[in-house]
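Hey, weird one. I pasted the Histone deacetylase sequence into the form twice and got a warning about non-standard characters only the second time. First submission, copied straight from the form history:
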Amino acid sequence: MTAALPIIAFYDKRTLQHSPEIEQNFLPGRLERRVKQILAKLDYKWDYPEHPGRLTAIKEHLDSHLIPRVQFRTGAKASRTQLARVHTSRYLDTIFDLGGKMAWLDEDTTAISPKSVEAAKVAAGTAIAAVESVLRGEAASAFAIVRPPGHHAEPTRARGFCLFNNVAVAATHAQSKLGCDRVLIVDWDAHHGNGTQEIFWADPSVLFFDVHRAAPFYPGSGDLEETGAGLGEGYTVNVPLPAGTGDRAIVKAFEEILVPAAKAFHPDLVLVSAGFDWHRNDLAGNVTDNGFAMLTAIVQQVADQHCSGRLAFVLEGGYDMDSLSEGVHAVLRTLAGQAPAPLIECGIPEVEEAIEFHQDAFLEDDGGE
C-alpha cells in the first residue's frame, strides 16, 4: 500500500440525472404493457429502488464524517469505443437512441429517464477514471461512487437497474490502454454479477470471484458449478450463500477461496464490485459495517501482495440509505488505514452486557454464615 498517496473517491453529480419515476409516461409497447401488468399485481406502491438519493446519502455521510487521506474528484464520460469493448454495437445503438426518453428496458423493471443514458456514460467513465488514478500513481486506491450500477448489464441486455457494465468497462480499459494483462474482479454484491460473468466467461485474462445469495434470489445465476468455459474454464469462481449469511461466512470465503485463487492468478489490478445489500438492514443477508471493512482489508492485502496495491472499487447495489452510506464509509476508512475490529457474532456483545448485569442475581445468599 502506498501510504503517502490519497484515497480518491469519485463522485459526479451528473449520475444523479438518472431518475426513472413510474408515474411518468413510458414509451408504449409490449414491454411497457408487461411491466404494467407486473406492477399492478403488487399489493403495495412500488417506487424505483435505484434512485439518486442513494448517492446523495453517501456524499452527505462522507462530508459529515471526514476520513483523513480521502479526497473527492469528479468523474468522466465513457466513449463509445470504451463501452464497445464489452457491449455490442447494436446494443449501444439501441440504448443511445433512447436518450431523452422514458422507457422500460427489461421486465425486471430496469428503466431509463430522459438523461439516464448520459448518466450511465458518466458512471462507466468514472469507473475508468478511478482505475486510471490508481494505475497512474495518483491514488493509493480509489472508489467510483456511481450509478446506475453495472454488474447485471450483459453485452446485449440491460438488467437489474444496470445499463452499462461499469466494472467490465474499467477492466477492459486497463487491459487495452494501461498495460494490465490480468485483472481480478471481486463482486461482493448480494446479487450475482451475471453480466460481468457473461462478459468474461471464456476469458482467462480476468479472474471473476463472486460471493452472492444463492438462487432463486435475483438474478438466479451463479451456481457453484458455473466456472467458465473454453480458455476461461476455471476463471469464474462463484460462492452462492443462503439468506442470513453474515460476516464470518463471507470472510471465510474470502480467506479460504479468494486469497489462494488470487495467489495462483497473480493479478496486475484488483477491482471490486462493491454492493452493500448484504447488510442486515437491506434484508438480503446479515453483514455488518465491520464485515465490509474486513472484506476491504482482505482485498487490500491481496492487492498489496500481488500488484503493488493497485485497487479500485466501483459501487453496485445497496438500497437502505443508512447501511449503504456507512458501508461505503467503512470501505474508505479501511483503505485509509483504519484497521477493522475483530469479528464478533451478532448479539454476543449484548449477551455479554446482560451477563454482567445479571451475574449477581442468582447467587445464593449464605445468610451471613
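That's the output from the first submission. The warning seems to come from a hidden character in my clipboard, not from the data itself. The first strand starts at residue 7 and ends at 11.
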